[in-house]
Amino acid sequence: MDTTRPDIPRTPPRPDGPPRPDGPARKDGRMPLREHLRELRNRVAKALLSVFLGTVVGWCVHPWLITELTGPSCHIPGLHGIAPATAACPNGLMVMQGVMTPLTFTFKVAMAAGAVLSSPFWSYQLWAFAAPGLHRHEKRYALGFVAAAVPLFLSGAGLAYWVFPQALRILLGFTPGSFSNFLQGDQFLEFFIRMILVFGLSFEMPLLLVLLNFTGVVSAKSLLARWRTFVMLIFVFSALATPTGDPLTMMVLALPMTVLFALSLAVIAWRDRVRSRRAGAAALSPDEAAPLGEAELLGEAEPLDPTPAQNPVPAGSRD
């Protein structure tokens, strides 16, 4: 016999755990803070895993990497360090000091190589974390920015690797003939990594300008009005940011940045023309009805004459 009263509704069972957001909220990219933190944790874990795998690859090829890194400096003519000459380093400039220095130096080289090799993967993880909160066209733009950022950074890093031996040759050329010189491994590597970062991040400057244009902060007209100021700032930044401080390294960094600034200015000008063309095509034609507040697009309407006609036509005289 059922003793439940029909006028009292039964209490629905309490679900286990917090309620999950509905479908439309997830489609809009909205999620609670807990899921945001979980998503961030997963993305960071994948990025660190990619860096770890790249470091393993760098560790496997670290003898070749160290030879390619130190070889140009070891073959600078006219210099001789305090270390004995070897086949890998004839001038004896490269030295290490300490018991743990060889291990830490090798690990730093492998980790730097891993960060460079895995840059497309951890850059994608950063984009994938921000993508759910973007609209469809914003996702397309963000993916394009990520796809352009990695080649630009690698191009700057490659240019730094090319100019690094020339910069060392200029700086070490000031060593007096009565003195010897030597380069400690840790200081040499930190100097090289700093130069790689400066060149790589400097090559991201045009991408930043395009991003600011996409968000409506800057326009081609404002950049063209101050292009001389921007060029001067590029040369000042190159003189201050380069670790060596010599004119050759400054020019090697400033000239490509100026070219990239001109290319970014061309892209921004092209996009502004496309935007203005679309805005003109979106204007209402004279045959369309204008909503409230858009009378200025169609011009002022002529007011009706409230006075009646002087000679009205009788209704019976119409054909």
Overall description:
The chain is mostly helical. It contains 12 helices and 2 strands. Strands 1-2 form a two-stranded parallel sheet. Helix 5 runs antiparallel to helix 6, helix 6 (136-172) packs antiparallel against helix 11 and helix 8 (205-214) packs parallel to helix 11 (247-281). Residues 17-26 and 292-301 have low confidence and may be disordered.
The end-to-end span amounts to: 89 Å
List the secondary-structure elements in sequence, H or E: HHHEHHHEHHHHHH
Number of helices: 12
Query: What class, by secondary structure content?
Result: mainly alpha
Q: Bin the strand percentage.
A: under 5%
Overall pLDDT: 76
GO molecular function, one term: proton motive force dependent protein transmembrane transporter activity
Pfam families: TatC
Main location: membrane
Protein name: Sec-independent protein translocase protein TatC
Topology:
Blueprint: H1 23-27, H2 33-60, H3 62-74, E1 94-95, H4 101-117, H5 119-130, H6 136-172, E2 183-184, H7 185-202, H8 205-214, H9 220-225, H10 227-241, H11 247-281, H12 295-298
Parallel strand pairs: 1-2
Helix pairs in contact: 2-4, 2-5, 4-7, 5-6, 6-7, 6-11, 8-11, 10-11
